[in-house]
Amino acid sequence: MKFVADGMLGKLARWLRLAGHDVTYIGDLRVPANEQDDVLLERAKLQRRVLLTCDLGLHRRAKRAGIRSAYVESNDVVRQLVEVSKRCGQKIEIRPENSRCPMCNGSLKLASKDDVKNLVPATVLKAQREFWRCGKCGKTYWHGTHWKTILEMASRYNQIVG
Ligand SMILES: [Zn+2]
Fold first, then answer.
1. Which of the residues 14, 16, 51, 58 could staple to 21 if both were Cys, CB 3.0 to 4.6 A apart?
2. pLDDT by residue (tens digit) across 73-99?
């Protein structure tokens, strides 16, 4: 699924990218605040993205224009993921092999130790076996401490969804 997320949903956007979804986050674009709603609707319509918004007025505007929109009510990102999956009728799976770069939405590719030897700290290089690189911004990822957080989030999500 492809999404476009409003300015309040940056964290949700990053999590959906980790789950492998293509997410445009309005906060990543240089759009003046008073033009953001129009840009969100335009991107959703032209690029066939589901609009994610916590603004009920904007959600209704999208619906009236025949644009797919999911109204997000919760402040908790795991509950937000649950809301999105319910509204779109699709479970969200967080698997590293499907992830997109949470920072820029680029595709991640598996990288060898050799590829990343100059990019990560020596201790990390020694301790880790798997690395991923973003094809767009070049950021390198590995199963570091934040990996535990990701797994905890995924397990909370799975508990709620059942
Ligand atoms: Zn990136």
1. 16
2. 999 999 999 999 999 998 888 776 788
Domain 2-88: give its CATH code: 3.40.50
Q: How many whole angstroms from 104 Cα to the centroid of ligand 1? A: 4
The alpha carbon of 107 and the centre of ligand 1 are apart by a number of angstroms equal to 7
User: Given a cut of 90, is residue 53 above it in pLDDT?
Assistant: yes
- Separation of CA 66 and ligand 1 centre (Å): 32
Annotate the chain with DSSP letters as a single string.
-EEEE-TT-HHHHHHHHHTT-EEEEGGGS---GGGHHHHHHHHHHHTTPEEEES-HHHHHHHHHTT--EEE---SSHHHHHHHHHHHHT------GGG-B-TTT-PBEEEE-HHHHTTTS-HHHHHH-S-EEEETTT--EEES-HHHHHHHHHHHHHHHHH-
**pTM listed for this prediction:** 0.89
Q: Where are the domains of the chain?
A: 2-88
Distance (Å) from CA 2 to ligand 1 centroid:
17
